[in-house]
Design a protein that fits this description.
By secondary structure, this protein is α/β, with parallel strands linked by helices. The chain has a single domain (8-300), classed as Alpha-Beta Complex (Spore Coat Polysaccharide Biosynthesis Protein SpsA, Chain A). The chain is built from eleven helices and 13 strands. The chain has helices at residues 39-49, 64-70, 74-82, 86-95, 115-121, 145-156, 218-224, 235-246, 263-275, 281-287, 294-300; strands at residues 8-12, 33-34, 37-38, 54-59, 103-108, 131-134, 138-141, 160-166, 176-184, 187-195, 206-214, 248-252, 256-259. Strands 5-4-1-6-11-8-12-10-9 form a nine-stranded mixed β-sheet, with helices on both faces. It has a two-stranded antiparallel ribbon with strand order 2-3. A hairpin with a 2-residue loop joins strand 9 (176-184) and strand 10. Helix 3 (74-82) runs antiparallel to helix 4 (86-95) and helix 7 packs across helix 8 (235-246). The protein is globular and about 60 Å long.
Amino acid sequence: MTQSTVRTAIFPVAGMGTRFLPATKAVPKELLPVVDTPLIQFAIDEARAAGVERFVFVTHPSKAAIERHVRNDANLSRQLRHKGKNAIARKLEEAALDSVRHDVVFTMQDEALGLGHAVKCAAPHVLPGAVAVILPDDLILGRGAIGEMIGAYQTAGVGHMVATMEVDADKVSSYGVLDPVSRNGQIVTARGMVEKPAPDAAPSRQAVVGRYILDGSIFTDLHAIAPGTGGEYQLTDAIARGADRVGLAGFAFSGRRFDCGSKEGMLAATLFRAREDAAFADVLAEYAQPVEDPAERVVAA
């Protein structure tokens, strides 16, 4: 594998996951499974396939389970192999990031001060050059989105690149939206971006989702911006601040995106993956039928 032009990936995983309470009271949102694979694992595998060298996890002291999942557990592997469960042990070892083969950093975001603040917390730990930011609860299945973006970034001629997808007009107010200038294949050159615009004021329907490649100057701009609503520092504000100076483009990735920060998106992702596995065909067929009303069954009896 040739060396990637983007050597560091930042994973902001400090959030509380309030939309999934009570499930996330004890289990971090990033460890919730889509069938049998935790959300964080998809993100790790995507970055690893893209040739990323350093993995920086911005987490919270209450979420120690994430580090336990991410790092190799030699003791658990030994126990599994002792019981003859070699295949499971091997699967866990292949999924993990270990200190011999991988450059892994965990750093803390003690206060919930926004995505921009989380990225800023990673600043002391990144390697020189542009950095990737991957939001694990934005699950993108198919070709690795961050790998596609890194490939395009080398020739795009911009400092900041954000993953984008076209959404319906009535959905733009839920996203940051590009203000586009031109399009060349999957690359949408933009003069800036607008955070959660009203549908009649949106400059486009190119919505920004959870993959970013950011010029190293992003950390200077993050220190320069003021907090917004709720005292949070918005990553989009820092990107917009540097857009004129380093350039900005969207990238229309080829995979399928699921908003796994919502219950609806998590269910959709689970059903999508289940449909790809013949082992779940009978279960899916059973629950595809209309739900019978118990009251009607009593009356019929």
